[in-house]
Please model this.
Amino acid sequence: MGIHINRKYEENWSENGYLGGFMKFKRFQQIHRYFTLRDKSVHPRQEGETFAWPVEPIAATVKQNCSTLWFPSSHLAIDEAMIPYCGRTKHKVKLPNKPIPEGYKVWALGDSGYIYDWLWHSRIDGPEEIFEKGMEVDRISSEGELTKILLAPTFALIIRLAQRLRRVHKSCIFCLFLDNLFLNVNVAQALLALRICCTGTTRKNAQGIPSWLITLKQHNSALVWNSALAEIVESTLCFLWQDNNAVLGITTAHPFRNDTVLRLRKRPSPTSTNARIVRPVFGDLPAKWLRIPRAIDDYNHYMNGVDRANQLRRNFTAHRPYERRTWRPLWYYILDVCITNSYLIWKRPIEENAKRGQRPFRKALAEALLCTLYPAMKSTRYKSMPLVNQEAKRHQWEAFSKRGYCVWCKEHRNKWESKRIRSPLAEIANGVAPAKRQRQSKTYGGCTDCTAYLCRKGVCFERFHRQ
Model:
């Protein structure tokens, strides 16, 4: 469940490990060795399937459930995500300047941390469901008519995810937030044909941007701070807003004129870009409430829909760095998405759960799954130990009049193993010395309510009452 992130699997079966009571490590190794989602000898790769065919149809089922169990908000984001993998495969990509420099790339549609849908990406084949030359889509022209246009694969994947979204929610209003990798005038017009708005930044070489805005962008300091210039190009608003840098963007959802919001802004450092333009606005104040365009404010708040999902998966991931099979990282990503989305579904409807973290949810989920899969083991695991007194209000460790063996250590041999040691100056016969059995050390206290001897140090007291 990603609760304890260890570099090696055997660490989960160490002294402080939790899995030793449910499954032996050797049995786990056997299952892990032969575990597969699709037997290629029975169900080989079919024509038209992507490089991720070993995780099908599990991936398709998870995608369908993710889009069915979550009603998305009107503000969604599309961005890339990376699955770490350092093995040998021609489908992985290398991005040296990214937090995950090497692995598989995924194009995800996110809603405040919830992964609603995604497309696999291959360095050889490109995005999933997109032809090598791109995809022909509808766009709204300046006269309001639908015309055909061919989009490159990088831009076509936005339309493919938007089509899937519109297929499920036919009458909802959506606004997609995109970064400068995806957005140009043709993409904005193709999204309008699907009745979906968009807002985001764009690049200087993006198709359809007016040349005079590109000239101002190249100067980067030709305007006064918080000033904006815009031009409508075929039902698409192209704008340039002066912040620390000149921001070039496209929107079909915001008017950008007299549509501002008051936000607390921090004063940039003297060595930052265009400090001579921005710092006079703040004066001697380190931070100041200033008005900025609503399009910029919405972009700052909603563009991180996929990045928040990456943050939720980062600290609690089932992925391990040492993996030889090329399809295993894809399976770990699917598992992480299922758990993270389940946590957000559990957290969303109840307001009081807003402050509850992800770790308690994962612990409860892991214990529920283990008790469901191994009900017989749970009933026989503590057969020789006394039962916990459920009527006691508070369990406390207290000293007894006599010493005794800890019931938890005696039941769990992974913490204490009875050994045989050789006595000093003992007689040796046939190369073997008669050994004396060494018992575990005794404890002088425990729980009075449960009448059980338990170690004062360690985790015996806590784990005994958690059974």
User: Anything to note?
Assistant: The chain has 13 helices and 19 strands. The two ends are 19 Å apart (CA to CA). Residues 52 and 327 are 7 Å apart (CA to CA). The longest helix spans residues 328-347.
